[in-house]
Amino acid sequence: MNAAPDTVRFEARAAAVAAAEAAYRRGLARTRLKRRLLPALGIAALIGVWALLVYVLKVPTFVAPSPYLVATTLVAKFDVLMVNLLPTAIESISGFLLGNLAAIIIATVFVHSKSAEQAFFPVVVLINTIPVVAKAPILVLLLGNGMEPKIAIAALICFFPTLVNMVRGLESVNPQSLELMKVLSASNTEIFFKLRLLNAVPYLFSALKIAASTAVIGAIVGEWIGSTTGIGALIIQSTYNFDSAMLYATVIVGSVFSVLFFLAITLAERLAVRWQPAA
Amino acid sequence: MSAPAVDCRGISVRFMSERRTVTALEDVSFSVEPGGFTSLLGPSGCGKSTLLRVVADLIAPSEGHISVLGTSPAEARRGRSLGFVFQDAALLPWRTALQNVELPLEVGGRRALPAGAATPKELLALVGLSGWENSYPHELSGGMRQRVSIARALLGGPRLLLMDEPFGALDEFTRDRLNAELRRIWAETGTTILFVTHSVYEAVFLADQVLVLAANPGRVAALQPIELPRNRELAVRDTAEFVAIAARLRAQLGSTH
């Protein structure tokens, strides 16, 4: 007598749960699709407004090109753009490696010697307050007209955020973990490699992600001053030639490279940091 | 006949800062027999964690004399006779449960496990975590993380286990279960335990003596032996004897404010 209504109720509930699950999964798929579609839509809208403005306001080509003209320039001048991207890429990647390596080493020194930190941190802050555009001519005078000054600028621009983050990462270890190491009679070297360095890895990556895009900016700014090749030189040349389509194409190549650099670091972070950072 | 596991005589600890000097412990004397289970009970600010850190050689006393396992705290620490369990488990998040237990083998002179000592895997089994060896701390619950940290502290068979409110952040059910398991682990390993807590129930259930500390400045208010059967179930907390002891401790704590 009672069994039949129970079974019916159970089946009804199972069906309701299945329906709710299906609805939830549909919602999830929709959100995912939206997340992919919306950024593309945003960029498309931007290009649309740009094209519309250039067309409606009859903007002369030497002031601003139409998106179509930029696209054809990108295709037609692809080899020139790539030839100029190469030095910029070499400079920014070398600067990125050098600047971050120096920052990591100096952060290590600072953590081990409070006196060194107190003596040299103000110097670092002082150098960091000089704008990049002011550092560039100084370094060109010092290092000549080759790739060296550009690498130096890219390195300098990466250095500061990485130093600050790395020091914080090395110092902000859980006090109880530090006590644990002392109870275990661990040496300072062991505390550094087993605790501080690994603790700093997530901090390091947030600095590297900033450095990836600023290193490219540093190399380009360096190329503005007395350079014949590179994205920066191409920007200056096309500006002076009123070749707005080439200018826009160059800027796009530069930012696409920046974005790829950033994505590479993000991917490296995902591979390196598989744990959840301590809260 | 055998030396006490811990012997404190007139220990004082003062912390100095520019503005004032805080006396964390004032003239504390007590001793713990080898193989004993002692709870340090008191309100926050009574210096019970400080006292534990004096025993572990993490804080040097300003005055007084302390011997740990018949030697100085520093010597006991260097000899790996101490295990320490921290309040927040202090696991390294980039290491799996097993790798966390193995940490003591990799630092402080990379010592090998003494012959016959339990392996990291066996210790994880002892604390009930078989099958979780390769999980990272963020994949474990708070209670499981604390079990890992107990296994790590037991590695190498320490003669003295120091525990600083290890179950303070856990829910009541998990805490009850871990209390019962800690009694079992204590019986199985025979190690001396010093256990800091601010829970009267926990202090009485676990220990065979309770050192009651008073605050401002931290000092010994009472040393209460706990005469309960050695084989305890959680149900012992409902017996008249247990309730009477807890009431006496609470009165001792209350009279010190």
From TrEMBL, chain A:
Q: Which residues cross the membrane?
A: 37-56, 93-113, 119-144, 151-170, 203-225, 246-268
The answer to whether the entry has keyword Transport is yes
- Per the record, the domain of life is Bacteria
Q: Which Gene Ontology cellular component terms are annotated?
A: plasma membrane
* GO biological-process terms attached to the record: transmembrane transport
PROSITE patterns hit by this protein = ABC_TM1 (PS50928)
Question: What's this protein's name?
Answer: ABC transporter permease
Hey, which family's this protein in? Belongs to the binding-protein-dependent transport system permease family.
Keyword list, A-Z: Cell membrane, Membrane, Transmembrane, Transmembrane helix, Transport
Q: Where is the signal peptide?
A: none
**Any idea where this protein resides?**
Cell membrane
Q: How does it sit in the membrane?
A: Multi-pass membrane protein
What positions does the domain ABC transmembrane type-1 occupy? 81-269
Q: Which InterPro entries match?
A: MetI-like, MetI-like_sf
Transmembrane helix is among the record's keywords: yes
Q: Which organism is it from?
A: Prosthecodimorpha hirschii
